[in-house]
Amino acid sequence: MKWKKTFVFALFFLTGITLGTLLSEVVSNVPFLSWLNIGQEIGLGIPNPLTLDLSVIKLSFGFAVNINIIKMICIIFCLWLYKNFSKGL
Q: Hey, how many other C-beta atoms are within 10 angstroms of the C-beta on 12?
């Protein structure tokens, strides 16, 4: 039963990220809503990934999270929906 709640949480969270990304693209062309795209890219190995060269194999490591205001609003909204929806699970 716990896996069901975890799956629904992940679904709502990914929906918030996807919706935020789509809305971010939409509002980027609207002049009075462009402030919603103010954000930051946070990560490891930005802009150049960390590289480990072992002569035989070369490994590159990198991780980045690009977050802005509209994405945070959508994620918080979807998590609020999850909180209300999960009471019935």
A: 20
The model's pTM is 0.79
In percent, how much of the chain has pLDDT > 70? 99
Question: In angstroms, rounded to a whole number, what is the distance separating the alpha carbons of residues 88 and 80?
Answer: 14
Q: Which residues pair with residue 1 across a beta bridge?
A: none
Six-digit token pair at 25?
């693209």
Let me know: does 39 contact 66? Beta carbons within 8 Å: yes
H-type helices in the chain, by residue range?
Answer: 2-27, 69-85
Mean pLDDT of the residues in the chain: 90
Please tell me the number of Cα atoms within 13 Å of 74 on its side-chain side: 20
CA dihedral 13, 14, 19, 22 (to 10 degrees): 150
- Strand, helix or coil at 8? helix
Tell me the average pLDDT across 11-17.
95
